[in-house]
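Everyone, carefully examine this protein record:
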Amino acid sequence: MLSQKALANLVIAWVAVPSLAIWLGAGPAMAQNSNGDYIFLIASGFLCDSSDSSACPAVVKSADGSSYEMSGAGTLSTQSKSVTAAGTFTRESSNGNTVEKGIWIASELVSFDSYGIAPDALMRTGSAFGPPAFGPMRSRMFPGSVPAGGLAVFRIRLLPVWGVSKTATLEVNCALGKVPDEHPTDGTTLTFEGGGEFDQEIRGRTMFFLTRPGTTSAAKPSTTEGGTNSVPTQLQP
C-alpha cells in the first residue's frame, strides 16, 4: 500500500503539476493580461525539504480531537475567480487511528485576501525554508514569480478511498507580507457541509507565489519590508 507521502507525490504529479506547467508556460500573453495569478503549495513540494518537522503535512483538529492531515498544490486567479488544485488527505480519530484517506480536488475559489509580497521569504536565515543558498532555486521552480502571503478560501470535494465523498470549505493561510493579527501563522482549516468543523491549526507550511511580477501595475514589488501590491484583495462568492 502506498504511504501518505508517496500518494501525495502521485496526486500532485498527476493533477497539480500539469496545471502548473500550463500556467507557467503560457508565455508573454498571460504576463500582459494577468492580474492576481498565484501558484500555491500546501505542505508539499520544497516546503517539505527543510529540517522543520512541523512543515508537512498540514494538520488541523476538531474539538473532539480527531484530525485531518492535508497536502496539495495548485493555481488560482483572482481576476477569473478560478482555481485548479488537488491534494491528499488522511483523517485520524482522537486516538490516532486512520479512519479515512483519499484525495481532494478544489471546485471553487470563494475568496482570496492578499497580504502582499515577501520577496526575501526564501532567503531568510533560520527560516523553515532552509539556508540562504536555497534562494536562487526559486527561479528554476516558478519562473517570474515571487513569494506572497494571503488567505484563500476554496470549496473542495474530498474523495476517500472508501466511503462517500464530502464537500467542505478549505481555508489556507500563508503568513507572509502584512499579516493580520487574527491570522499570525501558516495553517489550514476545514468546515464540512452538513456539519463538522476542524479549526484548530496544529502545523503545516503554506506558500503563495504571485506570478509574473512587474508585468502589470498590480504586481509591482514594494521596496519596503513586507510590501504589498494592488491585486484584488477580496472576491465575493
